[in-house]
Specification:
Blueprint: H1 2-7, E1 12-15, H2 21-25, E2 31-35, E3 42-52, E4 55-64, E5 68-72, H3 78-91, H4 97-106, E6 114-115, E7 123-127, H5 132-143, E8 150-154, H6 162-175, E9 178-181, H7 191-202, E10 208-211, H8 215-224, E11 231-235
Parallel strand pairs: 1-2, 2-3, 7-11, 8-9, 8-11, 9-10
Antiparallel strand pairs: 3-4, 4-5, 6-7
Length: 246
């Protein structure tokens, strides 16, 4: 499917670090390559994580097609690839270097590890992670920043398989310094029953947790009890500002 898409493009960009890139782009025209490999036309060097005064992200230097020093305002090394792909794409349109530098520093995807500036002392992020796998990916990435504490606020959806609740509880208990268990689309179930299921999973770990059933109160608890250097993740709802309840 991707090969068909590239075949129809006048210009395209491909990640040279992906072992399938040549097969996917074999019939494409004007392929611009990016990645960490020195063989890429646009490649990244000297990447490292950034964490300062409530800001977390990643720094790298672009070499080759562009010579830029860049700070990306979203966490994780994988966002270097996202930034490189964005730079490669806009290079076809002659976007000025300053616009690229300024844009990547503030660019964010709503509800996807989205930073919300609350304080210079700690970092608050909103994410859509609502199952064990997505939670594992987010928390593993954030642990690389070596926070004072990693605090995860989350719940689990009602009228969904209970095993998801056990798994989420166990994942947060294993990777968080503190879990704040709350509501998240309880639908036609009692939120307290859902919380009890989450506790089954979290009690398999040594993770600390508190229960704050009301989501607004749980957010307030996280902020009011934050310490300097903490990273707080409000997981599950992402950009959504509503609850599905009976």
């Amino acid at each position: 499917c991707k090969s068909l898409l590239f075949r129809q493009c006048k210009n395209c960009a491909a990640n040279i670090d992906d072992p399938s890139w040549q097969a996917i782009t074999k019939d494409a025209k004007n392929v611009l390559t990016f990645g960490f490999s020195d063989d890429a036309q646009l490649h990244a060097e000297n990447d490292h994580l950034l964490s300062d005064n409530g800001f977390i992200g990643v720094h790298f230097e672009a070499k080759g097609l562009k010579e830029l020093s860049l700070d990306v305002g979203t966490p994780g090394k994988f966002n270097v690839y996202n930034a490189l792909s964005a730079i490669a794409a806009v290079s076809f349109f002659g976007v000025p270097d300053k616009a690229i530098i300024d844009g990547l520093k503030i660019a964010k995807v709503k509800g996807r590890v989205e930073p919300v500036r609350v304080s210079d002392k700690f970092t608050l992020l909103i994410d859509y992670a609502h199952n064990a796998l997505s939670m594992e990916n987010v928390l593993t990435t954030l642990r690389q920043y070596k926070p004072n504490r990693l605090i995860t606020m989350f719940g689990a959806g009602g009228n969904r398989p209970k095993v998801r609740r056990y798994e989420m509880g166990e994942t947060s208990g294993r990777l968080s310094d503190l879990s704040v268990i709350t509501e998240d689309n309880s639908r036609f179930e009692d939120v307290n029953d859902i919380i009890e299921d989450i506790k089954v999973g979290i009690n398999k770990t040594d993770g600390k947790y508190v229960v704050v059933p009301n989501r607004k109160d749980a957010i307030r608890y996280c902020i009011n009890n934050a310490e300097e250097g903490d990273i707080i993740v409000l997981a599950g709802k992402g950009h959504e500002d509503y609850q599905e309840i009976k």
